[in-house]
Amino acid sequence: VGNSSLLICPPKPNTTMVTWKISPKVGGRCSLGYRADQNKTDRTNCSDSINWKFRPDRDPTLEIRQVERAHEGSYTCEVVVADGNFHITYYLTVLVPPRLTLSCDDQGNPVCEAAAGKPAAQISWVLENNSTPKEEDHDNGTVTVLSKFTAYSTNETTCIVSHPAVNWSKSIAC
Questions:
Q1: What is the CATH number for 11?
Q2: Which of 63, 92, 121 marks a domain boundary?
Q3: Is the same domain home to 105 and 69?
Q4: For 133-152, how does the pLDDT look when each residue is reduced to its tens digit (9 = 90+)?
Q5: Which residues fall within 8 angstroms of residue 47, CB to CB, at 6 or more apart?
Q6: How far apart are the two ends of the chain, measured CA to CA in Å?
Q7: How far apart are CA 80 and CA 49, in angstroms?
Q8: Are the C-beta atoms of 94 and 118 separated by less than 8 Å?
Q9: Ig-like domain spans which residues (predicted)?
Q10: Does 138 lie in the same domain as 112?
Q11: What pTM did the predictor assign?
């Protein structure tokens, strides 16, 4: 989320036409096209954040600026040359970093939360305990993971969160 993404469509010599067909998981399809005989580009239903990275006659790479969850889906590039049609398909998965907090509950137990991440984060503690993380799925495809450390001492303990978009650790004494 928030970064740019480049999807490479290998250029071929003497390209007649290039088409990107985009099918997001949510929302309507869009397409970008280029015809060499008219040196013309066309776009149908694509947002401004989706466009050619360079001139499509030289390099048909697709750029998605400021990636959002709505961009997740299938992206197919078709290159037409005299020898035939060549396709490459990508499936874009958007990672959402969770909001991370470490606090103490009313009983003095450390509570570690990784809220609204995609995919779900993994939570562990430096000192093993009998904690079972609880997951809550949200309508937007993100997941909140909550883990409570149950210990019999007031020593400082450390929560470790692992996620493809972020690794985090923080210590607390309750």
A1: 2.60.40.10
A2: 92
A3: no
A4: 889 898 888 898 988 877 66
A5: 30
A6: 34
A7: 25
A8: yes
A9: 60-173
A10: yes
A11: 0.74
Amino acid code (one letter) for 105: D
Instruction: Pick the closest to residue 78 from 17, 2, 133 (CA basis).
Output: 17
Q: Does 73 lie in the same domain as 13? A: yes
Q: Render the chain in DSSP notation, one character per residue.
A: --S-EEE-----TT--EEEEEEEESSS--EEEEEETTTTEEEEES--TTEEESS-TTT---EEE-S--GGG-EEEEEEEEETTEEEEEEEEE---BPPEEEEEE-TTS-EEEEEEEEBS--EEEESS--S---EEEE-TTS-EEEEEE---SS---EEEEEEETTEEEEEEE--
Count the domains in the chain: 2
Q: Which pairing describes strands 134-137 and 143-148: parallel, antiparallel, or unpaired?
A: antiparallel
